[in-house]
Amino acid sequence: MNTTMLYESKSRPWSSLDVLRVVSPGDITLPADERAANAESLWEDLCSEYDAENLCLELERRHAAGLDFSEEFWSLEKAWRRDEFNHYLGFRRLYSLMYDLSEDEIARRVSSRVPNFAPFDDLLRDEFTLCLMLAYDELATTRSYAQDIPFYRSLGHPAIGEWIVQVRADEALHYRNAVGVTLARHADRLAEAPAILSHILSLDLGSAAYEATFIFDHKGPTFPPEMLRGCVATVIEVLQRPQADADSP
Ligand SMILES: [Fe+2]
Ligand SMILES: [Fe+2]
Predict the structure, then answer these.
(1) Which of 6, 67, 142, 218 could disulfide-link to 62, CB 3.0 to 4.6 Å?
(2) Tens-digit pLDDT profile for residues 136-157
(3) Measured between alpha carbons, how far is 95 from 87 in angstroms, rounded to an integer?
């Protein structure tokens, strides 16, 4: 049996808490009104990072029920799951520092939400559509966090800016890994990609409520529809490129 993997996901383990350990509440100099204005969007980012865990648990359930995933996909999942939880820990620390809420209380609130994957059932039934969805989603997150960098740098401690730069770099790696698995394992289905990505985009633009699924938590000014359309166009273009290699996002 050939056990050579066709694509091994890249990963770069690090610790959000190590980076943010030097920050204390007194270091945050952002004015109170600006803090309040950004509370909701920080909370949403914190939740979607945590919700990668919900999505992984859903995939484990589907796997136990008979859905097959390639070794290449599991290598992506392992690196991705670890990174997103590390991002969640960083957002949790930052939120606690900025809004005087204990990390235990944040964890309690975040984990008490119940995910609903029913609206995306058709995307979770096979590895190919899942990879396309992840490529699109991670590229959107990469571009959104890139826009957020000046905000994090304005909070009052340089470690916070360094932290979001590392988070953004992970999201870019997740995008490249999703493209890598797609090309390595599903090259025979690439002709289907534009239609599936267009379906993904319409689900994202039309989704009403976000229900703790990690997928399609794209609300607010850093996720304008033009940016989301641009992400679909980039993924299609990268998959169609001869000897394709994931572009820098
Ligand atoms: Fe993340
Ligand atoms: Fe990610």
Answers:
(1) 67
(2) 999 999 999 999 999 999 999 9
(3) 12
E strand intervals along the chain: none
CB neighbour burial string for 161-184, b if at least 16 within 10 angstroms, e if fewer: eebbebbbebbbbbbbbbbbbbbb
Contact between 98 and 28 (Cβ < 8 Å): yes
Q: What is the pLDDT of residues 81-105, one digit of tens each?
A: 999 999 999 999 999 999 999 999 9
Those residues whose beta carbon sits under 5 angstroms from the ion ligand 1 are: 49, 84, 87
What single letter denotes the amino acid at residue 114?
V
Please say whether the dihedral angle defined by the alpha carbons of residues 218, 220, 225 and 229, taken in this order, is positive or negative.
negative
**pLDDT of 16-42, one tens digit each?**
999 999 999 999 999 999 999 999 999
Q: State in Å: Cα 25 to ligand 2 middle.
A: 27
Q: What's the one-letter identity of residue 102?
A: S
Could you tell me the distance, in angstroms and rounded to a whole number, from the CA of residue 226 to the centre of ligand 2? 20
Indicate which ligand has the atom closest to the C-alpha of 175. 2
For tokens 């993904």, the residue is: 200
Cα–Cα distance, 11 to 174 (Å, whole number): 9
Query: Using alpha carbons only, how large is the chain's radius of gyration in Å?
Result: 18
Per-residue tokens: 14 = 């690090």
Instruction: Please give all residues whose CB falls under 5 A of ion ligand 2, grouped by chain where several chains appear.
Output: 138, 171, 174
